[in-house]
Amino acid sequence: MQGKFITFEGIDGCGKSTQLALTSKLLAEKGFDVVVTREPGGTLISEKIREILLSPDNSEMVNECEILLYCAARAQHVREKIIPEVASGKIVLCDRFQEATFGYQGYGRGIPLDVLKTVNTYATGGLNPDLTFIFDLSVETSAVRMAKINKAKDRLEQNSAEFFQKIRDGFLNMAKSSPERIKLINAEQSIEQISEEVINLIQKHIK
Ligand SMILES: Nc1ncnc2c1ncn2[C@@H]1O[C@H](COP(=O)(O)OP(=O)(O)OP(=O)(O)O)[C@@H](O)[C@H]1O
Ligand SMILES: [Mg+2]
């Protein structure tokens, strides 16, 4: 059986990691072979690139460098892990993927989307997720959740509320333009309600 490639997207604190863990558990209980991975990262090389990208020491990083590093990490991840795992029948659940690049670097930082799409397609070799969830949350709720966790902010989390608002709007646009693949989920609901919606959509897709 050919596997599936499913991605989890949305602004900081929207619940991606929470839902990915729950989905993984529920799918495994139903007998599916699940692989959990994340971006930037997922392979040895890509995790090293992640350290550079997230380090608050690297505040001097220019946009062009940031984009190419994300895409470099993705190129390795897609070829070394995602494609082989899907080919062997696994359901690959990935915490962030290309929509994060379009959201943060495109809508957030204002890099032209056509540039990002060209570089991203080179990195992915044209691989698209089978299904993408965007967890939609207000910037205010995101800030409240992140404040509760109260961990040290990484380089990207040090941005302003306007930056996150632009990204949220970008995610809403992406969901509107690819309704077949990209499913918009109201992330203000309870963890249980969201999880049920996600698992139902995956089961519908697999059938
Ligand atoms: N539906 C929800 N309702 C209330 N709190 C939630 C919900 N989902 C997640 N949380 C809480 O919000 C916080 C952020 O969740 P989580 O880490 O899953 O988000 P994330 O999208 O992975 O964030 P990041 O972008 O920082 O990785 C956690 O403390 C989590 O327990
Ligand atoms: Mg997370």
Structural description of this entry:
This protein has one domain: Rossmann fold. Helices cover 57% and strands 13% of the residues. It contains eight helices and five strands. The protein has a five-stranded parallel beta sheet with strand order 2-3-1-4-5, sandwiched between helices. Helix 3 packs parallel to helix 5 (113-124). The longest helix is centred in the middle third of the chain and has 25 residues, at 63-87. It is globular, with a radius of gyration of 16 Å. The model has no long low-confidence stretch (mean pLDDT 96). It binds adenosine-5'-triphosphate and magnesium ion.
Which secondary structure elements does this structure contain, and how are they paired or packed?
Elements lengths: L3 E6 L6 H14 L4 E5 L5 H11 L8 H25 L3 E5 L2 H11 L4 H12 L6 E6 L2 H11 L11 H17 L4 E5 L4 H16 L1
Parallel strand pairs: 1-3, 1-4, 2-3, 4-5
Helix pairs in contact: 1-8, 2-3, 3-5, 4-5, 4-7
Features:
207 residues; alpha/beta; Rossmann fold; 8 helices; 57% helix; globular; binds adenosine-5'-triphosphate; binds magnesium ion
